[in-house]
């Protein structure tokens, strides 16, 4: 029976309820083209390239997935009104909505209908597989320092994973790329061989399999030498660290980021405050409010939860409150970091202070991981001394040196670790440009920075400066 055209209500002149709901979700008409479907189907079956390519495992990125831009804008607006829950463990950190299958909003209902119906049928035809009507669908929101580390998405019965991006204009430097990993003969991930940039109204789908390893790039991948993000290399570093409780990781930051930060540290923009009193310490400490943007980003990297996870992987320590215990529940609080000052003048990047006598278990139960740190400038005449007011506790010390190429040990400026009430030196950490020094110390281990006796800038030939810098952090289990 032919349908009748709906008219305005004669009494009010308004359109009926169904018409007020807005436009329907419609996928790009090009996807219905038989030639396009055949090309994609043939490429998928043969695992060969079609448009953007299929390596390292079958995947596809569809631009302009939905026909109407105004519908996509409406969908984004509805999704942003949802409640998001913080999701965080050793693998990921981001915010996620509840399941969208029961939502009643118009645009969300429409996209759900398209995914469950037309798009699922289209996928079945292209992939030549029978897909069940069961579809898991939710909305994830990634913010600065959020991350989803390497995983394969394999769950019982899952055949295809997909992502619909609703992002503003995006560039590679913004992070968040979908990185695809190659695998070895044992089906283990090796390295990132392809990165897909998020794009407004684009949909990415890929075949879920034992080799479909991927990740959402975070601040780590933008800053840290990719060698230290390789799980196999992390295992080697961890083994060495566990044997000696210390390690130096050369070339830690990527070269471009290193150049930016090193140049900014030598600028006049940063305000350096002298730290005292002289019977305990004498050096320059950066005013955190005066940091150039790239230096601030480096600070945020070293105090981010994703960096806590990286350090846990490199050392075997449980530095993140969700690392090392699979039975612990996920954090749903989504607390923001705050800054406080401890007795040594360090900036504390955490939502809560850590008491020196608190047990490891209690610390993990209290919430976000804890670290304290400073950005320091070291010049002729600077030093720190041993003194009784220093907190004695278990901690992982981190030093990231910059601007010290050509530095010689006789100039001083090195960190010396000694046993409490003893003169014996346990370890010496020398300044080395772009080297990350990690030292795990117990309550009976103290440290000091040797007095610097170097008044000539000629000693640092490559830097043309008489100062070097370090990011200094202490991380607590």
Automatic annotation (TrEMBL):
Keywords: Dioxygenase, Oxidoreductase
Basic and acidic residues composition-biased segments: 332-344
Annotated stretches, region: Disordered: 1-23, 329-369
Annotated Gene Ontology cellular component terms: cytoplasm
Positions of the Prolyl 4-hydroxylase alpha subunit domain: 58-225
GO molecular function: iron ion binding; L-ascorbic acid binding; peptidyl-proline dioxygenase activity
Entry keyword Oxidoreductase: yes
Composition bias type Low complexity, residue spans: 347-359
Cofactors (names): L-ascorbate
InterPro entries: Oxoglutarate/Fe-dep_Oase_C (IPR019601), Pro_4_hyd_alph (IPR006620), Pro_4_hyd_alph_FE2OG_OXY (IPR044862), uS12_prolyl_hydroxylase (IPR051842)
UniProt record, GO biological process: regulation of translational termination
Domain of life: Eukaryota
Name of this chain's protein: 2-oxoglutarate and iron-dependent oxygenase domain containing 1
Native source species: Cyprinus carpio carpio
């Amino acid at each position: 029976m032919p349908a009748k055209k709906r008219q305005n209500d004669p009494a009010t002149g308004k359109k009926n309820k169904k018409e007020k709901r807005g436009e329907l979700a419609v996928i790009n008409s090009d996807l219905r083209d038989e030639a396009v479907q055949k090309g994609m189907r043939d490429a998928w079956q043969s695992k060969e390239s079609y448009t953007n390519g299929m390596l390292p495992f079958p995947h596809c990125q569809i631009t302009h997935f939905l026909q109407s831009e105004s519908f996509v804008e409406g969908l984004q607006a509805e999704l942003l009104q949802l409640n998001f829950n913080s999701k965080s463990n050793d693998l990921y950190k981001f915010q996620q909505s509840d399941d969208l299958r029961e939502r009643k909003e118009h645009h969300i209902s429409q996209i759900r209908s398209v995914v469950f119906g037309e798009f699922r049928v289209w996928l079945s035809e292209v992939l030549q597989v029978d897909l069940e009507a069961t579809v898991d669908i939710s909305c994830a929101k990634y913010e600065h320092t959020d991350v989803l580390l390497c995983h394969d998405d394999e769950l019982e019965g899952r055949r295809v994973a997909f992502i619909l991006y609703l992002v503003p204009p995006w560039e590679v430097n913004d992070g968040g790329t979908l990185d695809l990993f190659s695998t070895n003969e044992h089906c283990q991930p090796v390295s990132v061989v392809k990165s897909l940039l998020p794009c407004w109204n684009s949909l990415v789908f890929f075949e879920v399999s034992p080799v479909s390893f991927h990740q959402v790039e975070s601040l780590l991948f933008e800053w840290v030498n990719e060698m230290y993000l390789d799980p196999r290399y992390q295992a080697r570093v961890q083994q060495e660290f566990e044997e000696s409780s210390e390690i130096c990781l050369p070339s830690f930051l990527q070269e471009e980021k290193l150049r930016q930060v090193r140049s900014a540290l030598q600028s006049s923009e940063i305000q350096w405050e002298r730290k005292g009193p002289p019977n305990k310490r004498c050096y320059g400490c950066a005013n955190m409010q005066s940091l150039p943007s790239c230096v601030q980003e480096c600070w945020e990297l070293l105090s981010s939860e994703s960096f806590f996870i990286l350090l846990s992987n490199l050392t075997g320590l449980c530095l993140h409150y969700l690392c090392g215990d699979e039975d612990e529940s996920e954090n749903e609080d989504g607390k923001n970091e705050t800054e406080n000052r401890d007795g040594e003048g360090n900036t504390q990047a955490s939502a809560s202070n850590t008491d020196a006598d608190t047990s490891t278990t209690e610390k993990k139960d209290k919430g976000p991981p804890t670290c304290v740190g400073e950005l320091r400038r070291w010049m002729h005449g600077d030093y720190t001394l041993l003194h009784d007011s220093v907190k004695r506790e278990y901690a992982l010390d981190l030093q990231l040196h910059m601007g010290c190429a050509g530095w010689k040990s006789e100039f001083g400026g090195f960190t010396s670790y000694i046993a409490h009430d003893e003169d014996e030196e346990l370890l010496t950490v020398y300044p080395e440009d772009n080297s990350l020094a990690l030292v795990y110390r117990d309550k009976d281990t103290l440290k000091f920075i040797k007095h610097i006796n170097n008044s000539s800038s000629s000693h640092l030939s490559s830097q043309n400066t008489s100062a070097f810098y370090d990011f200094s952090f202490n991380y607590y289990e």
